[in-house]
Amino acid sequence: RATATMGDVTEPSPQAPLAAVSKVELRVSCKHLLDRDTLNKSDPCVLLLMQSQGQWMEVDRSEVIKSNLNPVFAKIFTVDYYFEEVQKLRFEVYDSHGHASVGTHDDDFLGGMECTVGQIVAQKRVTKPLFLKYGKFAGKSTITVISEEISGNNGYVELAFRAKKLDDKDLFSKSDPFLEIYRIDDDRSEQLVYRTEVVKNNLSPIWEPFKVSLNSLCSCEEKRKLRCVVWDYDSRGKHDFIGEFFTTFEEMQKAMGENKVQWDCMNPKYKIKKRNYKNSGVVVLLDLKIHRVYSFLDYIMGGCQIHFTVAIDFTASNGDPRNSCSLHYINPYQPNEYLKALVAVGEICQDYDSDKKFSALGFGARIPPKYEVSHDFAINFNPDNDECEGIQGVVESYQSCLPKIQLYGPTNVAPIISKVARVAADEERTKEASQYFILLILTDGVVTDMADTREAIVRASYLPMSIIIVGVGNADFTDMQILDGDDGILRSPKGEPVLRDIVQFVPQCSFKNASPTALAKCVLAEVPKQVVEYYSYKAFPPRCPQPETPDSNLSSPQ
């Protein structure tokens, strides 16, 4: 793994295939930074740190922007992204003095912010206050992080620009031009997409070709307006405006093949003042190459929500919950095996579900008021709404439910698979990539209704859902491996094969000596592939990213 990947990287996780790595681009800007310099404004630089085995490690750092309290950094931070891990990030902003490396005592700390990769990916744009040491606010300073995905096979575009006969802004030499491309969002705000290098002393510069993701360039809308600005670089941060032009990705695509597209670079002030003003130079798009393939992150960033349902086995084979030998024993000092698996997997999933409400079901118990056996009851005993508030809500419902029910049997899981499948079928009819369902089944034994379960899984394989089964305890789970189609294709009793492999079975005892995060990594590693397979089969493209609402920002750090 790359150093930029968090998690227990040195810990072996049995049977755990690594999910295909995606690369996430993080773009950073700040507002209202503290001014630490007496003569000029602060010269800010951002450090990105990632937590690895409890230690914060520097991953990368931005350029230093001279004399600017509201910097928009051109540096794109690239981090490896794993859906099945909680990846903690820390951004630290420093006023750089240029002599020593950033982050030393000579540099003034302007504030820091912590979040996870999953949170930024799910929200696409996160704005949070900067904090000084000991939780103190850094004045009104804020930091905004915007995520875009670029991976080797993701949709991206390669652009090559040059300019001709730009205005000369320098007295004793020629201009030092650079080009910026901004995407104009629905709220008319501008998002910096790319800033080229500076070409010194040249009025007809040829800039290096560069790649940007399609999502970053135009939010998957070819007609979205783009503003391109040419500046004459100034080392004190006071760049001179040469000119600008507006275009769209649709118009840029005319440059494919042998064709070229060019625009007049216009200075609006000159246009008003000078009668014979034509332009301040011409910008030419020499070449454009485009490549589209959708990935898991495309769907997540397009607003696809992961809805998480947990189903808990309350059959008598678990043992009396009042007995310390029971798998359901509530030990005040440490979580039981059911809670360990639930929390480990649920903590990953909750970053991808905007309402943070999880359906929590039970099976194999006699439940009040009539104490009849149920194989799909809400553990909060609310038949109209089986959702709990966050993972903590599920834990609390589980603990309060145990004394009220009678553990019984048999171990039938087909009813719960079918219940989630009905909801997923309603979602499928929208013909949009808006919700995908993960069902986590925690059970202590081999299922009794194997034929019905195989039938239910085959039906579910045509729907936007995945099933994770964790075998709790030390039973012989050999027969359960048949459900995890890794050894061959799972078929219904009538011989109909699954459309796609949607079941991941893991015996928890394989992780006896590993941390809970290792279990989560293993069971969730297949999910991104399963999501992409489903939407690719259905030919549903990602929805376009929805505009952020003001309350979508993450809460302040603890």
TrEMBL record:
CC annotations in GO: plasma membrane
CDD domains: C2A_Copine (cd04048), C2B_Copine (cd04047)
Location of the VWFA domain: 307-506
Single GO term (MF): calcium-dependent phospholipid binding
Keywords: Repeat
Signal sequence extent: none
InterPro entries on file: C2_dom (IPR000008), C2_domain_sf (IPR035892), C2B_Copine (IPR037768), Copine (IPR045052), Copine_C (IPR010734), VWF_A (IPR002035), vWFA_dom_sf (IPR036465)
GO annotation terms (biological process): cellular response to calcium ion
Residue intervals of the C2 domain: 2-130, 137-264
Pfam families in the cross-refs: C2, Copine
PANTHER family reported for this sequence: COPINE, COPINE-7
Similarity field: Belongs to the copine family.
Name this polypeptide is given: CPNE7 protein
Natural source organism: Jacana jacana (Wattled jacana)
